[in-house]
Each structure stands twice: as C-alpha cells, then as structure tokens.
Design brief:
The chain is of the alpha/beta class and about 350 residues long. About 35% of the residues lie in helices and about 20% in strands. The radius of gyration is 21 Å and the shape is globular. The structure holds adenosine-5'-triphosphate. It comes from Microbispora bryophytorum subsp. camponoti.
Length: about 350
C-alpha cells in the first residue's frame, strides 16, 4: 500500500521575457493506492501527472507532504534506508525506446537487475537466467526470440513488454504506468493495457495509471478509483464508473465532453459543457485572474462570485457519491464533441 498526503511541488522556471517564474505542479494532493488496486490519474497536459508519478517512484522529492509505503513515512528515513521501499515501486515510462540502452541486448538489459536480485535474495546464480525467460514469458514474449536481440530489432509493443519485464525483476508491489501506451502503435495498445490488467490479477501488483485518456483509465481499472487532476489539484475523485458516468465537477464534464464521437452516436444530453482547451500552459497563464479562487473559475461556465473569491477543497458537499472540489457540483449531461464520419 502506498499513499500520499498533501503532496506539493513547485518548479522554478528560468528564462523567457518575464524572467524566472514559479510553476505550481502539485498543490496538496492526497491519494492512496491499495494493495492490488488500480488508481488512475487523468488530466490534460501540464496538470502535474508526471511529476506525481516521479515523486511516487522516488525519482523526485516533494516540497511538502508525505509519501508512505506500507505505513512507513519516507521522510522519517535516510536516503539510503528509503531505497528498499522505493524499489517496490517501479515506473514505466511512455517511451520504451529511451528506457532501454540501445547498445545492450535484452538479455543484458535483464541480467543486471536480476544479478542484483539474486544477491539480495541469496539465490544461486543460475536462477537469474531462468528468471529472465520466465519474466519474458509472463509479459507475453518468446524468450528465445527476444533475449539475443537489441531494442531497435523489436516493435514498440515488444519493447514496452520488455520494460515491464525489467520492472518485474525486483518483484515490485506497485507499477506506476505514465502514459504507458501513448507512444505505442494504436493496434498494440490494447495488448499492453490487457497485460497490466493481467499482472494485477496474477501477481497482485497495484497499478497507478497516469493518462490523459478516459477510455484507457476505464479499461485498466473498472473496479478502481479515478482522480481527475487540474493544474496540480485533484478536483474529483471516486470509483471509476461513478466519475465517468456521473461527473459532478465542470472540469471533469468538460474533459469527458472533449471525447470525439461520430455523428449520430453522441451521448444524449441537454446541457453542453465547454470543451477543454488543448493547452495546459494556457490555463497556467490564466491563473492570475482569480488568485484565491477556484483554479477552474476562469474557464467554468457555471462560476459564481464565490468561485472567484474562494478555492474549494476536495469533499462530498452536496451529497455526491464521489469527492469533488466545486461549490456547484451537479450531474450535468455531457455531450461529446461530434466529428464528421468522413
Ligand atoms: N523539471 C522541471 N522544471 C521546471 N518545470 C517543470 C519541470 N517538470 C515539470 N515542470 C512543469 O510542471 C508542470 C507539470 O508538469 P508535468 O510534466 O508533471 O505535467 P503532465 O500532466 O505530466 O503533462 P504531460 O502530460 O504533458 O507530460 C508543467 O507546467 C511543467 O512545465
């Protein structure tokens, strides 16, 4: 079990005509990934998803807040004593090509972490060779074909499976999948998602899934939780199906309404929510408009004077089944953006 409380991170960006500026990437994020569970974070580009994934995997530190692994607060440990805990959390990047050394065969890529694991667990050296084949089989690859090859000799989907196999060498308890299928050919994506789902079931590994795509979040964990993140703040959180079928925060509604559908197949609805702008950077720039108010106020069609003055926090006000950070939570029909069949 891994959890985060009040995770906050601000980056200082240099350069540009305005000189240095502070970019709040995460603003007090709370989360919990139960053992064997699936939690998805969804939001537009720049909302802080990758930063959160890196903090959870121990690759980045937060400015304030606490990460706890199996109820042990990471801040209470020295850097060295933290490492065995963070080893239980493995990050799977979106780009499987850059994650693998192009000058090493897959056998070599797996041999190093397996040699370490062999020493840690006191197993005989011969165990590592057998384990490499076992792990490749587990992720749906033929070891005889894959082991002697270099990354460029494999397809994107196969490379991502190798990256997942390498993550499994240390027997992790949590996989953090950051846009794990976004750089893979569309035809191969479903296979990788099915694999992550299968690993959850077979190995009991938890998955923290980071995506901008509602459909993949739904696929990975229909029994899990969905966190909708906007400019570093969680604005809606609840069971995946509840949040997707009955979103109450206008941002979630806008995010869902931005899903294109073919003419004639739109969801029925009577109230249109403004689609989300493509650029997260643009919304960051808009932050000056309501410095103390709701982060979404400047783009929200339902804002009131209170929203511009006060920032809502995550809670269940209004009797909704899911948590939300909105003064006007309401189920509104989401009308997907129609696109032409041609
Ligand atoms: N190392 C860094 N230095 C400065 N700013 C950063 C750094 N990493 C992230 N940021 C900024 O923090 C904000 C959140 O970035 P992050 O990559 O976490 O978002 P994201 O939701 O994962 O976006 P994307 O889907 O485009 O990767 C962005 O405004 C980004 O420009």
């Amino acid at each position: 079990m891994i959890s985060g409380t009040g995770i906050t991170k601000t980056f200082r960006q240099r350069g540009g005509v305005l000189g240095a500026r502070e970019v709040p990437a995460l603003r007090g994020v709370d989360f919990a990934v139960p053992k064997g569970g699936a939690v998805s974070f969804i939001g537009e580009s720049g909302c802080g998803k990758t930063t959160l994934g890196r903090i959870v995997a121990g690759l980045e530190t937060c400015d304030s807040g606490e990460i706890a692994i199996d109820d042990v607060a990471m801040s209470s440990l020295s850097h060295r004593r933290r490492q065995p805990y963070f080893r239980r959390v493995q990050l799977i990047h979106q780009d499987p090509y850059s994650a693998l050394n192009p000058t090493r065969t897959i056998h070599q890529a797996l041999a190093a972490p397996l040699a370490l694991r062999t020493r840690q667990t006191g197993r005989p050296r011969s165990w590592a060779d057998g384990r490499a084949g076992e792990l490749l089989g587990l992720v749906g690859l033929d070891p005889g074909y894959v082991l002697p090859r270099y990354p460029h000799q494999l397809s994107g989907g196969m490379r991502q499976r190798v990256v997942i196999a390498r993550a499994l060498t240390v027997d992790p308890e949590v996989l953090v999948a950051d846009e794990a299928v976004s750089m893979i050919d569309v035809s191969l994506r479903l296979g990788i998602l099915a694999l992550l789902k299968d690993l959850r079931e077979r190995l009991g590994v938890s998955v923290l899934f980071i995506t901008h795509d509602v459909a993949t979040a739904r696929y990975i964990g229909t029994d899990g939780e969905l966190y909708v993140i906007y400019r570093g703040q969680v604005v809606e959180r609840g069971p995946v199906e509840t949040v997707i079928s009955a979103p109450v925060h206008p941002y979630t509604q806008a995010l869902l309404s931005a899903i294109p559908v073919l003419h004639g197949l739109e969801s029925p609805g009577d109230q249109r929510v403004v689609p989300v702008e493509a650029s997260g950077e643009a919304s960051v720039e808009a932050s000056g408009e309501h410095p103390d108010g709701c982060l979404f106020a400047s783009r929200c069609p339902f804002r009131t004077e209170r929203c511009e003055r006060e920032r809502p926090t995550l809670g269940r006000d209004g009797g909704t089944p899911q948590e939300h950070a909105c003064f006007h939570p309401e189920r509104r029909s989401v009308v997907a953006v129609p696109v032409s069949r041609r």
